[in-house]
TrEMBL record:
A UniProt-annotated Pfam family: His_Phos_1
Catalytic site positions: H9 (tele-phosphohistidine intermediate), E85 (proton donor/acceptor)
Name the record gives this protein: 2,3-bisphosphoglycerate-dependent phosphoglycerate mutase
Function, in words: Catalyzes the interconversion of 2-phosphoglycerate and 3-phosphoglycerate.
GO biological process per UniProt: gluconeogenesis; glycolytic process
Binding site for substrate: 8-15, 21-22, 58, 85-88, 96, 112-113, 156-157
Keyword Isomerase: yes
Organism: Hymenobacter aquaticus
One MF term in the entry's GO annotations: phosphoglycerate mutase activity
Annotated site location: Transition state stabilizer: H155
Protein family: Belongs to the phosphoglycerate mutase family. BPG-dependent PGAM subfamily.
Length: 201
């Protein structure tokens, strides 16, 4: 029986500044580093065979801190663009509050939360899901089928998209789903990869 653990990266400097981040490559804040270590502490009873993260530094650093906390630095790590955050296009780097004042709360909510609403020059959550799920099925599922235990450290929208697939969430459910920085989700899987149990740490 394999397990799959999903972790959102710790707080970044862009999260703290309340700006749209997307593919901007920003570092963790001191609080974000503490959140990463805390996630590692929560996972102290887990041993991982494979680890995956995005190529963005906030994801890679969070994974590095988790594995160091677990004393599992030799776990193979796979960094991929497929697990990057949703591309926010022209919104990247803009302050969220100022964007609401310019475009209105309803429009910004659609860009931020909507499944099929793309920010200007950006990705929809639907598009994000397609690339994330494709990578998951091609690269991670074969590891799980071998009974290997997998850790994935990624981003809020990336993990929302993957959880939609794993948990069979509706569009309305995924649009309402919030994943905190440093949030940990655990799935215990049967040999057929059905979810026998899932919970947050």
């Amino acid at each position: 029986m394999a397990f799959l653990v999903l972790v959102r990266h710790g707080q970044s400097v862009a999260n703290l500044a309340n700006v749209f981040t997307g593919w901007l490559d920003v570092v963790l804040t001191p609080q974000g580093e503490d959140e990463a270590r805390a996630a590692g502490t929560k996972l102290r009873d887990f041993h991982f065979d494979q680890a995956y993260c995005s190529t963005l530094v906030r994801s890679k650093r969070t994974l590095e801190l988790i594995l160091a906390q677990l004393h599992q630095d030799t776990v193979p790590v796979h960094a991929t663009d497929a697990l990057r955050e949703r591309m926010y296009g022209a919104l990247q780097g803009l302050n969220k509050t100022e964007t609401v004042l310019k475009y209105g709360q309803e429009q910004v909510n659609r860009w931020r939360r909507g499944y099929d609403d793309a920010p200007p020059e950006g990705e929809t959550l639907h598009h994000t899901q397609e690339r994330v799920v494709s990578y998951y099925e091609q690269e991670i599922v074969p590891q799980l089928r071998l009974g290997r235990h997998v850790l994935v450290v990624s981003h809020g929208n990336t993990l929302r998209a993957l959880r939609m697939q794993l948990e069979g969430l509706s569009v309305a459910q995924v649009e309402a789903l919030e994943i905190p920085t440093g949030g940990v989700r655990v799935y215990i899987l049967t040999p057929e990869l059905s979810i026998s149990r899932m919970y947050d740490l």
